[in-house]
Design goal:
Distance between the termini: 35 Å
Radius of gyration: 19 Å
CATH class of the largest domain: Mainly Alpha
Shape: globular
Structural class: alpha/beta
Number of strands: 8
Helix content: 40-55%
CATH superfamily of the largest domain: Homeodomain-like
Order of helices and strands: HHHHHHEHEEEHEHEHEHHEH
Strand order of the largest sheet: 4-3-2-5
Strand content: 15-25%
Length: 279
């Protein structure tokens, strides 16, 4: 059986509906109305959100607004060149997750994962259902299915390593996945990508929880200041979403930019992290 935490999936589905309602209204909705739209009492809705993210629905709506990205850039922007000196790491300072990673060699990547066995399983997460993939060395793929569905998510990740053998064995990777979403314990990553992509993903790992950066800042930090478009492509090809936090990369204008697994999921992640950072 797949690992399940039904409360997480339920909370995300409610939050996903809340995003749509807030977008339609264009302004913060009173607690009673928002709860009513969800078919819940105000008290139950308040308890649900407080349990999931630690803040009230009224406060949470502020993190879900489209303008929140601009606020993050103004208040919680991370300059990657000084991130290490400031003691900031990809795991942030808000939880007890220890993240270790190893990159595949360029030659191994060029062979399309030939000779690798990649284990996979379906898991519930704070952002809906997730597909996790991993080798004996660590997680190499993490996708979210709420916007695209199971089949598309699986085909997407599988196509990245056409030479690998894929085996359903969620128990082989369950400990890493559980630690990742609980933000406690140890999670190993096996980063499988081209050398330029690996450099971009390493830079993303230096963006702390609750902070954001820009595509141009990433390009500058890896010594390729003119390669902003290529950086954006590499960010979008990140196979280990959430743990390699591509959702924390924004455009200079404050626009969210794209997100491979759907912009509602990206907004949800940024709101969730912001609430936990300030709650």
């Amino acid at each position: 059986m797949d690992a399940k935490t039904p409360d997480q999936a339920y909370h995300f589905h409610v939050m996903r509906r809340a995003i749509d309602l807030i977008d339609q209204g264009g302004e913060a909705l009173p607690l009673e109305r928002l709860a009513g739209e969800m078919g819940m009492s105000a008290a139950h809705f308040q308890r649900l959100f407080s349990a999931w993210v630690g803040v009230s629905p009224k406060r949470y709506q502020q993190y879900l607004t489209l303008g929140h990205a601009k606020t993050l850039l103004a208040q919680r922007f991370t300059t990657l060149e000084v991130a290490d000196a400031a003691g900031l790491t990809g795991t942030g300072r808000l939880h007890d997750l220890f993240l270790r990673w190893e990159a595949m060699s360029p030659g191994e990547f060029a062979r399309g994962g030939e000779g690798l066995t990649i284990y996979h399983g379906w898991f519930d997460s704070p952002f809906g259902e997730a597909l996790a993939m991993g080798t004996d060395k660590g997680l190499c793929g993490l996708a979210f299915t709420e916007e695209c569905g199971r089949a598309a998510a699986f085909d997407d990740l599988k196509a990245r390593w056409p030479g690998a053998r894929f085996e359903p064995a969620h128990e082989r990777i369950a400990t890493w996945v559980s630690a990742a979403f609980a933000e406690k314990g140890e999670t190993a990553l096996h980063m499988i990508g081209a050398p330029f992509q690996i450099k971009v993903w390493e830079a993303l790992l230096r963006v702390p929880t609750g902070h954001v950066t820009t595509y141009s800042e990433i390009a500058q930090s890896i010594g390729s200041p003119r390669a902003v478009r290529a950086v954006g492509t590499a960010v979008g090809r990140n196979p280990v979403s959430f743990l390699i936090p591509c959702h924390r990369a924004l455009r200079k204008s404050g626009a969210l930019g794209g997100y491979h697994w759907g912009l509602p999921v990206k907004r949800a992640m940024l709101a969730w992290e912001s609430a936990r950072a300030e709650g």
